[in-house]
Amino acid sequence: MERRDFLQSSLLTGLATGMPSIQDKILAPKLQPKIKLSVSSYSYWHFKGDKFPIEKVIDDAAALGLEGIDVLHRQMESEDNAYLQKIKKHAFLNGIALTCLSIHQGFVTPDKEELKKHVDHTIHCIELAYKMGIPCLRLNTGRWNTIKSFDDLMKNRGIEPILPGYTEDDGYKWCVEGIQRCLAKAEECGVLLALENHWGLGSTPEGMLRIHDTVNSPWLGLLMDTGNFLEDPYDKLEKIAPKASFVQAKTYYGGGEWYSLELDYKRIINILKKVNYQGYISIEFEGRENAYSGVRKSVELLRKALG
Q: Measuring CA to CA, which residue among 230, 226, 224 is closest to residue 196?
C-alpha cells in the first residue's frame, strides 16, 4: 500500500472508530510546555544614573546561559539604524534572542492630539522592533495621571482617582481605540503587541481581558508581569495566563525599589504549565542589590522553580 493510501485509510479508520488516526498523530502532536528564560535590560538599570549598555546585558545573559533578553526602549542609546543592527548582530553572535521591546506609552486620555502622539510613538516602536528582529512589543494601557508622581502612585498601591468629568468606560474606549490604530502596522511588521498588567486599566485581570477581548485581534496578546498584582496575585495571574504571550518575572533581592513581594515561583510556573505556555519568562530584577548578583540569584530561583 502506498504511503498516501495508508494515511487516508488510517484517517478513515480513525473517523469511524472515534480514535485518533496515525495522521492525527503526525499532524497534531501534543506540545509540552517549553518555557525559556530571558532577562530584561531593565534589571540592570532602574532609570537611575547612566544607562546600562544593552551589549553588556547580552554578554551577561550569554554568560548565564540564558536564551534571550528583552530590551527597555528608554535604555537604548540610540534609534539610529546602525545602532539597531549592531545590537541585533551582537545578540546573534552570542546566541541570544531579542525577545521583546518594552515601551512606555498610554492611551488613557481625552485629548485627541495626545492620543495621536502615543499612537504614533507606538507605531514608531513597532518599526524599531521590526528592524531589530524583535517579535513582541510591550504595551501599557496608560493611566489617569491624577497622581503625577510615580513614587506617590506606588505609595498608593497603584490606585488613583479617575479624571474628573469622565468615567472608567471612557478610559476603556480610548485605550481600545489607541490599540486598534496600531494593529495594521503590527500585522505588517509581524510584531505581536502584548498588553501588560502595568497599573491604570491593566491593574486588574478583568480590565486586561476586557480590552483584549474588545480589540479581538490575533495581533494583541497579554503580558503577564508577576509583580504587578499587589494583592492576591495568584488567582489574578491564573485569569490572564491563557492569553499570555510573554511573561516578566519580578524579583527583589536587597529590597525592592518601590515595594517587595514574596512570590511563589513554583506555583506561578505551574499556572503557566497548566495552560501549556510555550514562551519566555524574562527576569525583571527590581531590587537594590548589585544588578549582576541580583540577576544571578534570580536565574537560580527561576531555574529551580522550572525544575
A: 224
